[in-house]
Amino acid sequence: MSEGSIRANPYSTPRTTVTAPDSPADRAADAPDRPPAPEQNAPADIRTPAAPPGRGRARTTTRSLLPSLVPLLRSWLPRQRWFAGKGNPITGFSLVSATEILPCTAGGAAPGLLHLLVRAQQQPGTADCYQLLIGIRSTLPPHLAHTLIGRPAEGPLHGHTVYEALADPRLAGLLLERLRVPGRLGALRFTRAPGTAIASGLAPRVITAEQSNSSVVYGDAYILKVFRRIGTGVNPDLELPLALARAGCARVPHPTAWFEADPGVEAAAGAGLASVPADDPAGGPLTLGILQPFLPGSADGWQLALNSLSVQADFTGAAHALGRATAEVHTALAEALPTAVLRRPQIEHIAAGMTERLEAAASAVPALRPYREPLRAAYDELAALGDRGRTWHAQRIHGDLHLGQALRSAHDGRWSLIDFEGEPARPISERRRLQPVARDIAGMLRSFDYAARTHQPASGAPGWSRQWSRQNRAAYCGGYAEAAGTDPRDEPELLRAYETDKAVYEVLYEARHRPDWLPVPMAAIRRLAGQREEAPPPARVPAYERPFPTPPRRTQS
After folding, report:
1. How far is the C-alpha of 168 from the C-alpha of 265, rounded, in Å?
2. How far, CA to CA in Å, does 464 sit from each of 311, 405, 408, 516, 536?
3. pLDDT (tens digit, 9 = 90+) per residue, 476-517?
């Protein structure tokens, strides 16, 4: 995830403004184009020679395309919320693939749509691949002025304006049409789930809350998540919901359609361009976007928790039900996908990684140093249990579970879990590893604590929010035990180790990015270290802030 991002809850009703045409004339001009049938699509290399200005179609070979865009991307890309390399200069670009989804007619009013996979080099040996959807118009209408990328000074798009295409209702609608008609288009492959039908003509609106990806809602029926930083291999956010759909688990919105690119794709015309870095030895397709049912009227668990705290209302029933929902998802994942048993070598490896992250965090955050020894004891105890022959089961898990990743229906109070991407800063191969379910459970327990610690308590009610956290943590574990048949509290060493590891990460994150929030995880550090729990002043939580930190860079632990 990009630095400081909030991973907003795109499946619930958006509270943010959306892009839309300003006038009836704009709305008419921006009606979605129906794409040609897949076999009639233009090739991915954009190889038709460019026509003179004012006539013909603005197309040419990919050889000169990227150089003409580099000056614009060098300025525009670092300003995007989903860009992961903030603070480090971009030293170069390479083109992975270019696909013309909709040709642009030179001098005409109709826009064009260009799909790019571009690698941005920042440090020696470090490059991230980004998915860009580029709109092309002769002139940009006023309602799209905020989407401007720039005007190429040369190359095949000279004389045109390029901009962020998802904000254009006409081009966002075109993506839905492509997903309605499965097939190939150059380097791209569009797939629709068997037995599904997608309505046409649904009005698109972009969710403008800051996210690590981009989301478009179509009517109140579907939401399209467009991944921005692309890694090799099937994204868990597609893989796991598909597996849960096959298992009949109704706790997760099932994918309706998706689009991908093949691994190692290169732009055509003999350009000699670099392919996507292989962070997954097994390879696999590059997941680019997922269309899923939209859940209007749902509220995320983080906001519901804050509402409960603000009026000192009971939340244990909701926490208990959320525990059951989590257990149902874990059970279905264990039935649908491979599992494993962690023995001494694997347990020692897990404990060693936790210890390494603790030492790195303590070196960077002086406030953590006095607690190193008692915190390390949790990891040493875990390793010692493995040495004595203790084993644990491992399976596929959510990977980044917290209250903001759970939606509760206003209709029947039913919980759904969303966003199975895991921690986007980590390679996909790492996110797909088998792990104990205790990692997910620890993440949710920390989220209850975060909510309580960021709450501004009413005067005369000291300690109430801490009691709220304790009660709801217990209710969550109780609900999990009812559905799973095993209580996570029966394995205290494992749960403590994972909760400690999460709290250590939170300390490092907050110290680097939100120093005012540092007292929140430090209170947990003191508790986990066996010291008396204090009541630090609550953090000020802007309404737009993400409730739970996620690593901003792939290189972070």
Report:
1. 27
2. 11, 25, 24, 22, 13
3. 999 999 999 999 999 999 999 999 999 999 999 999 888 999
